[in-house]
Design a protein that fits this description.
614 residues; alpha/beta; Rossmann fold; 2 domains; 6-stranded mixed sheet; 19 helices; 9% strand
Length: 614
């Protein structure tokens, strides 16, 4: 197994917080990556919807900005003031027009949402798919050193932030700026420069205060996310190891570990909420001050006779209209910055390069017989700790070769290199003369079937788990594979048959039943090369002997590589290769190796003594 990395490298909660400049650079990087989903060249319909949604947005704001003028006209008409056309329209007519304008503004906004919904949901689906596919492209090394709970939480938060970010970048910031500019222009046109100056100063101070405080809050939010991720990792890890927790009576320990993590989250969350209260109060203070100043100016104008009561009411309506989007700006900016924080971690994940990639000129693997050759293969999970030290091995087409040796000798590593979970450090591995690094990964994986030591099943039905061996397999083909693995009679005896759920990781089945299901789906895959990686070492002796018969039948007509610890399972192999410290020290048939009296013979004698009845 590869060595564990440090917790800092594997755990996002242990990473240092970025500087403000780094956060801003990260925010712009995210905006640049999100933008193409709003304007994809290959999908004109998306562009049309975005343009139509923006048109609805502009119409909604134009109507919204004009609405207080109708309100003013209705008030002045009631007071017998105002232009002749307002008096002619009458208070009732202007009031009806005011109501219609408000309805039109809401209608245009909702139409905008309808037009943009498909764009946002498509973007959400595309980023979720891209993230999911990328995670599967990452190497086994990455997944071994990563905590599943933390990884799933990063993806969940990041994907949810995408739709929010796309929607509010277009439909909050842009309309807010448009509305503020229109209202400022109306104040300058209808009143005087002092109204405009008051509005500009209020907006400037409000935005400055909101942005400065929110930048501080974002760092607190990041810390809260780190603690949330850490707590979730501990919870998921504990639940995945439910049986182990029970075996060692460790429920109390797990509860204390989880509570300690949640306590750290509680501290961070309290600080975040305190800072939110301070931000809300500061925003309210600035908005109220600006509102009072403008209303005082309007009141003085009415007293002087420069303005009508309708003007006073209109000024109040416009200031309230400013207050609402400005209050919204605070919320939107906070949420956008928080979404950027959540998405930054997800995009960092997307930027994680896979260790194993296809070459630009990779071609599909052509299997003519299934011959495997290892040429002076060197490899180590850590450069300072080599595992394989120049292994050369030829496995003929249709031959069954067993690889045995002590723990840490490199047996399972050969299997991982053959499946190309990792690339060799030096040398080459070839199938029918083709270097694995020169063929496509899909074709390589299709040619190799693996039966691992512990067959892991999806929390679905027996039918689904066996059919997983080949996409599109019919039920008849699934049942044929189950019969070949001597599993059909067992399944047929179950109340729900092939529709029986196997439980989380197949926990409702015995070890032997799970292994037979693993064999069945590998047979359904019908690979040219069969890799048995300690396929029976976790089973009892009787079950192991039963499974061995199925494995021998599964290997008929295929190249079989058996990685084994129990030597009794490989005595019938065409050739047995003995590894020690990453080198081949012996090779031959079982009888020949016993006769030689070397390392294999010593291992056989020791295991025979251990298996002998007392």
């Amino acid at each position: 197994m590869p060595p564990a990395t440090s917790s800092t490298a594997a755990d996002p909660a242990a990473q240092p917080l970025p500087s403000g400049a780094q956060e801003r650079a990260s925010a712009w990087r995210i905006v640049r990556r999100v933008s193409p989903w709003l304007w994809p060249a290959e999908h004109p319909w998306v562009r049309r919807r975005v343009v139509a949604a923006m048109a609805m947005l502009v119409l909604a704001k134009l109507v919204a900005v004009g609405t207080p003028l109708l309100y003013k006209g209705a008030v002045d008409a009631l007071a017998g003031e105002g232009p002749e056309w307002m008096l002619a329209a009458g208070a009732v007519g202007l009031t009806v027009a005011y109501g219609m304008a408000r309805l039109m503004s809401v209608g245009f906004q909702e139409l905008r949402n309808v037009l943009f919904t498909r764009v946002g949901q498509r973007a959400l689906r595309m980023i979720a798919l891209e993230t999911f596919q990328h995670i599967h492209r990452l190497s086994l090394r990455y997944h071994i050193t990563r905590k599943t709970g933390g990884l799933s939480r990063i993806i969940e938060r990041g994907v949810k932030a995408v739709d929010f970010l796309l929607r509010f970048l277009l439909f909050s910031i842009v309309p807010l700026l448009l509305e503020l500019l229109l209202i400022a222009a109306i104040f300058f046109w209808l009143f005087d420069v002092w109204y405009l100056l008051t509005v500009v100063v209020t907006i400037t101070l409000y935005i400055w205060f909101t942005f400065r405080v929110t930048e501080w809050r974002v760092r607190q939010r990041r810390e809260m996310n780190r603690q949330d991720t850490d707590a979730n990792q501990k919870a998921v890890d504990s639940l995945l190891n439910f049986e182990t927790v029970k075996y060692f009576n460790a429920e109390g320990l797990e509860a204390r570990r989880y509570d300690a993590a949640m306590a750290q989250y509680e501290v961070a969350a309290v600080k975040t909420n305190y800072s939110l209260a301070a931000l809300n109060f500061g925003q309210a203070l600035l908005i109220t001050a600006g509102l009072v100043v403008v209303m005082v100016l309007a009141a003085l104008g009415v007293q002087r006779g420069d303005l009508t009561v309708g003007d006073f009411v209109m000024v109040n309506a416009y200031m309230i209209q400013i207050t609402m989007p400005l209050g919204f700006l605070g919320t939107v900016y906070r949420e956008i910055r928080q979404a950027l924080v959540d998405m930054a971690e997800m995009f960092d994940l997307l930027d994680q390069p896979p260790d194993v990639t296809e070459s630009a000129d990779a071609r599909p693997l052509r299997v003519s017989g299934g011959a495997v050759r290892l040429e002076r293969v060197r490899f180590g999970y850590d450069p300072e700790r080599p595992i394989l030290r120049g292994v050369t091995l030829d496995i003929g087409a249709g031959e069954t070769v067993a690889i045995v040796g002590p723990s840490g000798s490199g047996k399972s590593t050969i299997g991982r290199l053959l499946f190309r979970f990792y690339d060799v450090t030096d040398g080459a591995i070839r199938i029918d003369g083709q270097d694995l690094r020169a063929v496509t990964l899909d074709s390589l994986h299709a040619a190799i079937g693996v039966v691992p030591q512990d067959t892991v099943l999806f929390n679905d039905t027996i039918l689904y788990n066996i059919a997983y061996g080949r996409e599109g397999a019919t039920r008849a083909e699934v049942e044929a594979a189950a019969r070949a693995a001597r599993l059909h009679d067992f399944i047929a005896a179950l109340p729900q048959g092939y529709d029986t759920a196997v439980g989380e990781r197949g926990l409702k089945l015995s070890g032997g039943e799970k292994q037979r299901m693993g064999i069945a789906r590998t047979l359904l895959k019908n690979p040219a090369i069969l890799l048995l990686d300690e396929a029976t070492s976790a089973l009892d002796t009787q079950t192991e002997q039963e499974i061995q018969a199925e494995l021998r039948a599964a290997g008929q007509g295929r190249t079989v590589i058996t990685i084994a610890h129990r030597l009794s399972t490989v005595v019938d192999a065409d050739r047995i290769v003995v590894l020690d410290a990453g080198r081949i020290i012996e090779a031959g048939t079982h009888d020949a190796l016993i006769a030689r009296g070397g390392r294999y013979a010593a291992m056989w004698a020791r295991q025979s003594a251990e298996d002998a009845p007392a």
